[in-house]
Amino acid sequence: MDALTGLILAGGRSRRFGSDKSRFELPDGRGDMLQRGLALLSALPRVSRVAVSCREDQAEAIARRLPQGVELLIDPQHESSSPLFGVTAALRRWPGPVLLLSCDLPLMEAGTLRQLCDARDMARRGMGLPAALLPPLRTSFVHADGTVETLVSICEAESLPFLEAALTAGRLGLYAAIPADRQHLIPVRDSLPFFNMNTPQDAQRAASLLQDAQRAASLLQDAQRAASLLQDAQREELL
After folding, report:
1. Could you tell me the pTM of the whole model?
2. Biggest alpha carbon distance in the chain?
3. What is the pLDDT of residue 13?
């Protein structure tokens, strides 16, 4: 399938957090939130370029932190911030599908993004969809309660007229900009990767969850090493 542009959405005003969330570092050595998102997108084979969307007052600080080859899209000055500005700018510059990723998801993982890409590819081929439906303009995750993760989604090039019409009309909600019957929604298997870091308390919770995950991974590695040593010992006894 066609290559994707990966777009980090970093233009939120972080009012509840109290500072720019894209610059926040969790204590796991993986860099700040912007660097984490860039690493996730850059590691996906389907992503051919990576860009960052931000406000004008963030641009200078963010530009200094960008790796070579990552472009910066500056949102127009507006009283309200909206990811609609960033994805519209990306689709205007690069006429192809855009993979959106919010910069405030500390537990997001590559497997979830690969699932999104695979589901998008199948839907664009018409697999698993009623024959009467047109190919989706956006592929997103949906939780059991109906909440749609529009900030972890793929917008198609053909969605641009709908997004531009929403901007012209002053409708800045990203979900409502595309008709419901042109959206492909994937049920969320695990809600943890979508843990949203909106407040300092959320950051503390994310740090705790990451530490728990690291301890669990370490215990699993220890168990696997022990099992391997046991198998080696059993083989030696049989010789």
Report:
1. 0.84
2. 78
3. 73
